[in-house]
Amino acid sequence: xxxxxxxxxxxxxxxxxxxxxxxxxxxxxxxxxxxxxxxxxxxxxxxxxxxxxxxxxxxxxxxxxxxxxxxxxxxxxxxxxxxxxxxxxxxxxxxxxxxxxxxxxxxxx
Length: 109
What we know:
The chain is mainly alpha-helical. The chain has 2 domains: about 1-30; about 30-105, no CATH class. The protein is built from 5 helices and 2 strands. Helix 4 runs antiparallel to helix 5 (about 90-105). It is flat. It starts with a helix and ends with a helix. The mean pLDDT is about 90.
């Protein structure tokens, strides 16, 4: 890519980002979102997080490894169980990362 193509790409992406982020502010209350859509949007952050985290837990070197020798998956399962028992996200993150670090240091697998 030449310099002008890079700068053009940056400018187009900046305009697209500004347009999508300011659209709700510019439109205001002129558009009503149906109640059903509002209910579905409540789950969007959890779905996005799952879409980011799940592949990292299940893939090892680009191929799926759904076995207990996958320490990331094992730590994710243990962290999920911990969350179901405690219902505290910060403690779950700390516990899950601590458990993962412990498995890595012990060279169990």
